[in-house]
Amino acid sequence: MGHNLLLNNIDPDNSAVDEDYKLSDDESNDDGTCMKQSGRSSPPVIDHFTLAASATVDQPQPALLATVDQSLHAPLDNVNQSLHAILDNINQPPPPVSAIEDQSESQHKKTRKRKRNELEWKRFVQKKAYNCGEQVKRKKKNTNMPETSKRVVRGMCMTEKCRRKCSTKIDEQQQDKINKAFWEMGLKERRHDFVGSNTEKQVVSTRTKLNNGGKSKPRNHSYYFFLPNIENERVSVCKNFFLNTLDISAAMVREAHKIGIRGATPGRGSVNEKRGGHNKTKPDSLAEVKLHIESFPHVESHYCRSTRVCKYLEGALTISAMYRLYKDKCMSEAKEVVHESVYRSVFVNDYNLRFHKPSKDTCDSCCKFELRKKSNGGVLAAEEQAEYAAHIRRKEQARTSKIIDKEGTSDSKICAAMDLEQVLTVPKLSVGSAYYLRKLSMYNLTFYNLGTKEGTCYMWTESEAGRGANEIASALYHWLVEEDKKGAEQITVYSDTCAGQNRNRVVCSMIIVFLSRSVNTQKVEQKYFESGHSQMECDAIHSSIENKVRKRDIHLPSQYEEAARTARPKMPYKVISLNRENIYDWSAVNTVMRGNAFAGIITKHSIIYSRDDARDVAVSFSNEIGGVSEAVVYKKRGRNVNFSNMELTHAYTAPLGVDKNKKEDLLKLCAFLPNDCKPFYESLAVRN
Questions:
Q1: CA nearest to 531, candidates 497, 503, 495
Q2: Pick from 644, 618, 642, 611: which is nearest to 522 by CA?
């Protein structure tokens, strides 16, 4: 509900007011009424705030009070709501006093640079309280905000001497309502509107000579004051009653009328200011900058896709490099070029983009507990302390277990780590135009034997298959079969806790099938690092491959495979091309098992699979590595499924293909590639 009060019928053309006039104590009698001038008087000259030409001082007139639009820039002619409706609803909660609507954090668009919220600053909070008539305590001596008490009615005028008889026109209850409505406007401009609209300033036609020894000047103007009574009628009141009701000083009356004198919209001196706004960038130029930034293909975070909302550009790019490309583009098209600072401002304030590869060196849980500990004086709550202790215990358990398993490796006992590298893009070019075009994604699932230090890379492109549970399980199945052929009897695999790739029922189903068919392997154990502490040896393989191709152009996926083979000269990594022929649909195998057999697997840190002489596979889960194991019943009742003879179906009967728009971009990139590379991209299937 708005409490912005203003009178209609404002005359904007009449501005005959003496600029040198100063309001003094001599302007009114002791009873607060305006002094009458002696001699013959001419028709009064009324300034911007005159209610109407026919308005008189002594007779009450119907009030034309209205509610001003919430926007500061709305025309005064749009005022149409009566004060009566406002006062009837005065006890309702007031609206936000700022013209800018508050927006919650969830409504703000996530950007690279945190946007400031001035409405939460202390000085703006104090200013809001001051404008609403609340008590303000000054904390600093150098602040411009005065220390004030809560705005309330200061009382009535001198009832016995008052010639207007104000107390008979407006009672104390009506005074309180007017005061509350006046200060709940919340804006200085609105209060000026109300004061100016309910006061009349008339030029004194005949001056009376004062015998005061020249201590004060004779008056040039007279002020008349009005307030609405309980019947919403505009009644004349004395100066003291007007000021006491609104709890203001005479300076506000002078200020409200001076704003109108200066030619600005009455009560809105700051609206028509001409300061600032001359160097604003044109909207068309800003739109061109945004189109250029959005033309670069975005890549999601590899390590924390579920927790990060930012996108990533190619690591070779910088804001300066992007601006140079933008400048060249605009000059070639004869368009206006904005300054680099404008381009950079749009990039950091309107987008959430990064250049370097996403890293996650710190643990989210550890940071959370550390912040809570600092905020609580160095002490955690009992529940938080227990949760943090369990988190650290699981981290140490995984690291200690890996060291023990690594030391106990042999030809029959294998310990390895597996991890998926961040997405590789092909072709990888240093040509400026290539930054705007989407490229083919390539995946690399790496296995590292902790005992023999052998590295194996399973690489494939998005045109062959995705990177879900079936693809990860198929690569792991192929690696397990190769280790089984070498005579491995017990295999332990360490990995991170990614539920969509490593820790899920699809991988469990695959290992059950593998053990039922293996020749030498009798036991497989999956161990998971604690989330946020999954550093492993596979990261060294990924780093060596990235260093190998850092300063090279890559035209075909086969060149990435060759770079992986030669990344470690002394002991080359083994590279296997994964295609749809060796990717199986392990989710179909899971359908013959109990539906809730692997429920709660995403909270487990150890899964043990063991095979007996009858080739039956037993599965047990454990919440912690080395903890108490719980047997899992995965077979359906009444159904004896022979997993060793089960026919495996392929997950893909045809290449997965690429998106149509990406295929078009890849064909455009062929202009920067050798001729012998073009057939590969031309033969890529298009995904339906």
A1: 497
A2: 611
